[in-house]
Amino acid sequence: MATVMDIIQGLSQVAANSYDDMCKEKETGLKRDQEVGIRDKRVIDGFKMRLHSGNKLCVMYTTEVLLSDVMQKEKYKDTLHQNVNDVVSFIKKEYKKVTGNGLSLTEIKDMEPELEMMQTSRVRVEAKLTCHYEVGGLEEFSKEDPHREKMHSKFKKWLEQSTDKRPQNDTRKPEKQDK
């Protein structure tokens, strides 16, 4: 079984392998992987991912589309969600290649995918869909973490050093406090 650090390093390597220079022959599930003719517009899309709350992976897919294509927001959301699913399958395949172990990503049902659309011109819109997944093999963030307790005690000790006494080099006039 892989450790937490192994999973994080594997996901980091997958993210590094997904950049344009690294994935010439790989299918990431992005629209830019498709062959673009010389007269066609360039396709701008990509994804990011981050771990948060211990065992949750957040996948953010961003693309630029024509305003006429997104008039029906809910219908277009399904199309973007399919693109995110393609990216997630790429992440799983690449993780398997990098580490030799499988990666379990389960979509969190109670967290609705978030769609943000920002108009960049009169004809183009930047669409960003954020989906959340639970990573198998990573345990929930524990408050009983010994490193967290050590940091908390040092922080508490630092706060206790606070006094109302002014430093010697403070030449400002004392403020009058209303009582």
**Gyration radius, to the nearest Å?**
24 Å
Largest sheet: 5 strands, antiparallel
Proportion of helical residues: 25-40%
Task: Tell me the domain tally.
Answer: 1
Strand-and-helix sequence, N→C? HEEHEEEH
Structural class: alpha+beta
* Average pLDDT level: 79
Globular, elongated, flat, extended or rod-shaped: what is the shape? flat
Number of strands: 5
How widely separated are the two ends?
Answer: 62 Å
Beta-strand residue percentage: 15-25%
Uncertain segments are: none
Number of helices: 3
Write the layout of secondary structure elements.
Elements: H1 4-17, E1 45-52, E2 56-66, H2 73-99, E3 105-107, E4 114-119, E5 124-135, H3 146-160
Antiparallel strand pairs: 1-2, 2-5, 3-5, 4-5
Helix pairs in contact: 1-2
Report on the structure:
With 179 residues, this protein is an alpha+beta fold. It has one domain (4-160). It is built from three helices and five strands; from the N terminus they run H-E-E-H-E-E-E-H. It has helices at 4-17, 73-99, 146-160, and strands at residues 45-52, 56-66, 105-107, 114-119, 124-135. Strands 1, 2, 3, 4 and 5 form a five-stranded antiparallel beta sheet that branches. Strand 1 and strand 2 form a beta hairpin. Helix 1 (4-17) crosses helix 2 (73-99). The N and C termini lie far apart (62 Å). The mean pLDDT is 79.
